[in-house]
Design brief:
By secondary structure, the chain is an alpha/beta fold. The protein contains 11 helices and 12 strands. The strands form 2 sheets. It has a 10-stranded mixed sheet with strand order 2-1-3-12-11-4-5-10-8-9, with helices on both faces. The chain has a two-stranded antiparallel sheet with strand order 6-7. The chain binds nicotinamide-adenine-dinucleotide.
Length: 360
Amino acid sequence: MEVLLLPGDGIGPEITAVTRNVLEALDRSFSLGLQFSREDVGFASLEKHGATITPELIERARKADLTILGPVDTAHYPPAEQGGINPSAALRINLDLYANVRPSKVFEGLPALARNMDLVIVRENTEGFYADRTMYAGTGEVMPTPDLALAMRKVTRQGSYRVSAFAARLAAKRRGHLTIVHKANVLKLSDGLFLSEAEKAAAEQGGLTVREEHVDAMASLLVRTPDAFDVIVTTNMFGDILSNEAAELAGGLGLSGSLNVGDKNAIAQASHGSAPDIAGKNIANPVSLLLSTVLLLDWKGAETGRSDLQQAANRLDKAIAEMLKNPDTRTSDLAGALSCSDFGSILVEKLSDVCRDSID
Ligand code: NAD
């Protein structure tokens, strides 16, 4: 089973190295049969190939069993004509990764604004307001005069249905609650279309408690009653904003995993950026990319019927929670003393213990 590692920019190489060590430990304990390959993406690719991502690499990711993408420093890329392509967007569009899965869960022993929270936001990932990736040609933004800028939002029946059906299936596997978030009272046509397709998908799934909220109300409700939610499905930009809000309530962006999923492929990706301010200092927290890897292993296990992958995901999830519970095994962003690499080494040890316990 091929694991394709794409370290990316800034702190990407540091947190990807930890992720690889952890996967190698799981591979040893669970005999997963993983084979690793590493390819440049971002500035390293720009230097070598003249573009931050190449068509060849997109095809590699399409064929790889497990792809892990580090954060990319898109804000500092040159224009697309000079090779500055957003690798994350290119992979999401080309591999049609239409659902962005963003869990937010409070960890035992870690300070968090929310007291109790265990929810997943499923964000539509290929449409909406994201002007650089929603059109066949050109972008969704135009500037007809120097004083007028227009942005178009794309909402399709098929795109709304498939992401909602995905969220409904996920809710059925969890606590059976689905919240549809929209603004159909104002965006009557576009969010109206999303809402009607989400309602249809939820009804077809059956057995769910379905709730609807306007996005502005939802922003407040996440703070007031975070424990009231299980799976939330919404359009691209609303999901982007709400998932960061939920991550902060649960303890911070560095603690939240993210998986981009389509019908055939999935890519694990940290939910934070490339953190250029701390790159190369070995102080980054690798937990977000590790939790994304948990989601990826679990997804692949479910897709292929391989329970060993799901067991490995479960073990890793538990070992990360153990690390975070103890103030002595946290990185500096969480007021701990561990470097990024030391966090990884202790996690590998702990993982071996947890794996040994499970085998005994
Ligand atoms: P950022 O998430 O990179 O950093 C924000 C703050 O959080 C910084 O102080 C940083 O040091 C800290 N931080 C982030 N991740 C951390 C970690 N794992 N451990 C410890 N501290 C961490 O956001 P930004 O500075 O706005 O963006 C930097 C670049 O990343 C930009 O080019 C942006 O476009 C890009 N970006 C990429 C992604 C992605 O690849 N998925 C997501 C968001 C932003």
